[in-house]
Amino acid sequence: MTERIDHTLRGRWTSTAGTLPPHALTWLRERIGLGDVRTPGRAPAVPESALDDAARAALADVVGPGFVRVDRDSRLGRAGGLSYLDLLRQRGDGELAVPDAVVLPASPEQVTDVLKACVEHDVAVVPFGGGTSVVGGVTALRGDKAAVIALDLNRLDKLVSVDPESRLAVLQAGLPAPEAERLLAAHGLTTGHVPQSYERATIGGFAATRSAGQASSGYGRFEDMVEGVRLATPVGEWRLGGAPASAAGPDLRHLVVGSEGAFGVITEVTLRVRPRPRVERYEGFVVDGWARGTALVRRLAQDGVLADVTRLSDVDETAVSLALSGGWKTAALKAYLRARGVRQPCLLILGWHGADTAAVGRKRAATLRGHRVVSLGTVLGEAWRHGRFNGPRQRDALMEVGVCVETLETATHWSRLTELRTAVRDALVDALGECVVMCHVSHAYETGASLYFTVLAARDAADPIGQWQVAKAAAGEAITGLGTISHHHAVGTDHAPYLEAEVGALGLDVLASVKRTLDPTGVLNPGKLLPGGLASPGDR
Ligand SMILES: Cc1cc2nc3c(=O)[nH]c(=O)nc-3n(C[C@H](O)[C@H](O)[C@H](O)COP(=O)(O)OP(=O)(O)OC[C@H]3O[C@@H](n4cnc5c(N)ncnc54)[C@H](O)[C@@H]3O)c2cc1C
């Protein structure tokens, strides 16, 4: 939990190659026909920095010469995010976009001055928080600019103020989540925001992408927590949010939250915070079949009694978890479930947070009242909690042995949830052939829920990048018209082509107008959010 990002090491999450147990390898060979493809280990090419001396000097004037870095490791360390394609590129497959320099400002004022210098010297700016984007959000694209910098917000790492009476905290944008939580814990407070990328992602990154954490049912999505923002833009600073609620026109904070660095750089976020729970209880349950499972989660959401963490796996994801756990305990569990009449087990993890055991007990009783689920006890729930940040480590290990492994997510209304799940699943299977597609619901609302897919296939050694691009495009087409292109990963470069289908041509024009106002020369994060940057509506 305390691991700080090592910016020199971006090709994997872990510093050592992970390993898979032998039974997992055997299972993979059987299920996806895994051959002997290894992840390439070539060092990616790093071109000469295109940042000219005048631009470098202007930036050094703002942040100090030691904080304008043009060395290979610094630049390579901020070359792209952590999608499967990013990881392949960082390991030497395909072309990697490397920033010309890394600039590390230490204050909101310095961020504004860096932007001014970049406008003056025709330099594109990619805001860089934890660099955990999985949609190409931090790809170092320069657009039509002479050079591109990664604007690393690492040094904006302070808890600025706390108002315990109002339950508000002002946090600087570069704070990684564990550090933000450590600082808030000293005041008995928490954000409750725990995404799987918790160990590395930052407060500014969460706000910029409308992130959703594993306990979103209890604490809300990140945008629900944002009371105010401080934004540095090329045309000056913009501060928003001074009241708990307001009827002063449209809520402009939502032009900033989710703006993915294309409208400005978030330097501070005022967050609604909560008392830190003293007791957390996680429990595993099994429901018979996807239809019954989603009906149950829908009832809980619509009755307002969802557990703080609510995660329902489909039959495939449950089967894979059981297969990979292996051993006599799994065999005994399967026999037990059969005896209880469960034919198609779907694993349901529920977690409740509270001030004390009695409070947690009351919440648990409210969730479970009147529902038929088979409890597997807290051991399974605790196992989930223990392993909940393991996804990226397992991905490292899977990549090592030649697996094409990636996730994608969407959301839709309850009435279309199963249709969407089937459409995405079928599209992925059609595109990839022999593969495993698993799905779970981890964020539920009164009107619908998210779907999160994990895909495993044998990597195509000849064209690994093309293999996933085809599958991702097929999934994108399947989603269009049925659900959102992103429930919490954001748009980045990867989803930009699908944004028009979701918000309409007029929606894109509105976004382009905002961009033109805040970033008239288009230095901010070219190619992200808006396809091609959209300097003017006519450019589309
Ligand atoms: C293994 C893994 C698991 C993940 N799990 C989840 C999950 O459970 N829930 C979830 O919501 N997401 C998840 N993500 C996606 C990612 O972690 C989130 O999008 C996160 O919010 C990004 O935060 P970051 O600080 O790493 O931002 P970055 O990756 O650095 O940046 C993301 C985008 O925001 C922009 N940006 C960053 N900081 C700022 C700023 N201060 N001002 C303006 N723009 C900025 C960047 O330019 C980029 O476009 C996961 C990613 C990985 C790799």
TrEMBL record:
<dbReference type="InterPro" id="IPR016169">
    <property type="entry name" value="FAD-bd_PCMH_sub2"/>
</dbReference>
<dbReference type="InterPro" id="IPR016164">
    <property type="entry name" value="FAD-linked_Oxase-like_C"/>
</dbReference>
<dbReference type="Pfam" id="PF02913">
    <property type="entry name" value="FAD-oxidase_C"/>
</dbReference>
<dbReference type="InterPro" id="IPR004113">
    <property type="entry name" value="FAD-bd_oxidored_4_C"/>
</dbReference>
<dbReference type="InterPro" id="IPR016167">
    <property type="entry name" value="FAD-bd_PCMH_sub1"/>
</dbReference>
<dbReference type="InterPro" id="IPR025650">
    <property type="entry name" value="Alkyl-DHAP_Synthase"/>
</dbReference>
<keyword id="KW-0274">FAD</keyword>
<feature type="domain" description="FAD-binding PCMH-type">
    <location>
        <begin position="95"/>
        <end position="276"/>
    </location>
</feature>
<comment type="similarity">
    <text>Belongs to the FAD-binding oxidoreductase/transferase type 4 family.</text>
</comment>
<dbReference type="InterPro" id="IPR016171">
    <property type="entry name" value="Vanillyl_alc_oxidase_C-sub2"/>
</dbReference>
<keyword id="KW-0285">Flavoprotein</keyword>
<dbReference type="InterPro" id="IPR036318">
    <property type="entry name" value="FAD-bd_PCMH-like_sf"/>
</dbReference>
<dbReference type="InterPro" id="IPR006094">
    <property type="entry name" value="Oxid_FAD_bind_N"/>
</dbReference>
<dbReference type="InterPro" id="IPR016166">
    <property type="entry name" value="FAD-bd_PCMH"/>
</dbReference>
<protein>
    <submittedName>
        <fullName>FAD-binding oxidoreductase</fullName>
    </submittedName>
</protein>
<keyword id="KW-0560">Oxidoreductase</keyword>
<dbReference type="Pfam" id="PF01565">
    <property type="entry name" value="FAD_binding_4"/>
</dbReference>
